[in-house]
Amino acid sequence: MSKIEVEKEIKNEEFAADNLTESMSEESLTEEKESENVEATDNMSEELTELKDTYVRLMAEYDNYRKRTIKEKADLIKNGGEKILIGLLPIVDDFQRALDTIDKANDLTAVKEGVELIYSKFNAFLKQNGVKQIESTGELFDADLHEAVAAVPAQNEEQKGKVIDNVQIGYMMNDKVIRHAKVVVAN
User: Fold this and answer.
1) pTM
2) Domain ranges of the chain
3) For the purposes of burial, counting CB atoms within 10 Å of the CB of 88, is it exposed (0-12), middle (13-18) or buried (19 or more)?
4) Nearest partner of 139 among 148, 131, 130, judged by Cα
5) C-alpha pair distances (Å), 183 with each of 138, 161, 165, 175
6) Which CATH class is domain 132-187?
7) pLDDT value at residue 147
8) What is the CA radius of gyration of the chain?
């Protein structure tokens, strides 16, 4: 072999060795990437499992909350008037005592005073619970507060459009009309 052929042979072997080294380093890089991908996949899988668990727990908590609020709402509707009814019981007791004494009473004024006391006690109870009477007589007719049951001719110009008689008292509860006052209006 000539010197040139030997040099070519050496270059070919060096080239082959370089290619072999490159191919080995590419294989090791590929293996490292695959190892990293497997590790990343495992991490994502763990994270996904944690997120699913958190989601399931939140849904269960929400479902329990929803059921609890529905039950509480039903209890409020069922027993909402309990406070009012408990407040009315002493007034009912007073009426019972009044009825028991009416037959035995000789003094009509005493019976009348007793009934007036019960009436005032009942009105005080209504006020404590936000219920108040609608003042009507002498006021201008207001369709939001009053219901006209009759109209009579006005005796003078000042009375026109005003309420001159209250047939049935109206009531408001916390600034909301719960019963309109039935009134007679002057035209």
Assistant:
1) 0.57
2) 1-80, 81-129, 132-187
3) middle
4) 148
5) 11, 12, 6, 20
6) mainly beta
7) 95
8) 47
Give the pLDDT score at 20: 57
The two tokens of residue 58 are: 């939140």
Those residues with Cβ within 8 angstroms of residue 140's Cβ, 6 or more apart along the chain or in another chain:
161, 162, 163
Distance CA 181, CA 165 (A): 10
CA dist 105 → 93, 94, 116, 118 (Å): 18, 15, 16, 17
Q: Which two tokens stand for residue 159?
A: 């009375």
pLDDT of 172: 95
Q: How far from chain centre, in Å, is Cα 118?
A: 38
For residue range 58-69, what is the model confidence (pLDDT) as tens digits? 999 999 999 999
User: In degrees rounded to 5, what are phi and psi of residue 167?
Assistant: -80, -40
